[in-house]
Design goal:
Purple Acid Phosphatase, chain A, domain 2; six-stranded mixed beta sheet; 27% helix; 15 strands
Length: 291
Amino acid sequence: MAAYKIVQITDTHLTADGDKPANHQRVDPAKKLADVFDDIHDTEVNPDLIVISGDLVHNGHPKDYRHFQKYLAKEEKRQNARIQVILGNHDRTKAFYKGFLKDDPKARYFYKVPTDIWDLYFLDTKCGDIEQGYIDADQLEWLQTSLSESSKPAVIFMHHPLAGPTLEHMHYSILQNGDELLKAIPEGKVKAIFAGHIHFAASYQVDGILNVVSDSTAYHIDCSNHHHHFANDATAYSVINLDEKGIGVEQRRLRFGRKTIKTFDIPDTGFVDHKIIQDELDRVRESLEEK
């Protein structure tokens, strides 16, 4: 397999017009993202692709996504690399479609990018506007069919990570139907899953699939105390190398503040009641039917 290099940026949480930076950030998240792009350029990473894996704009409006799209177009030229995005729980689907894609809103934003050797899948794990992640049945069927029909190895990018050995205390927040995702993946077809959302780096193996979670560009969260999580200003991104020998990931940290900017109290760290998921899915469907 020919070498293929991907930069993963995640959880940029850019501030919507008129709002204050999310979770009391002391450094503008736009400045943090600019620092990342400068580092990619100045250190000559030369990626084949850049992926921004969700929480692009924190509760943004169409004009915020329109501005973001124009900004990324300039970076594509400077980096000489295509930039792909997916949505996170803090993104607003309708605003993204109207502002970024300039298209009529749909329920989900997922797609596949084939390369000469690899198939890259970009999934939508948003569950309406709630924190937890969920992949709908139509998307799982599409994924299973596409994987089965291709002879190429594949990797998946998604916002919410799959449950794994290092995330036992994060079940309340991550992908809620990970077992269904694993059932949809033909054996041996997916080599790695890359995610974000939890704002700290983690890596683990599930069913023979490498799972790598990248730290945030906007702020890091310390979850070592399972019921009290602490955020601090931080900036990081990942460099992913795919080749015939395997998959390698380097995390690059550009900033790490020591001062706590926000505390999150987590009474229950278990998976949420499925009724919460279903109620939100019903709300989203009704909202689309009204347009």
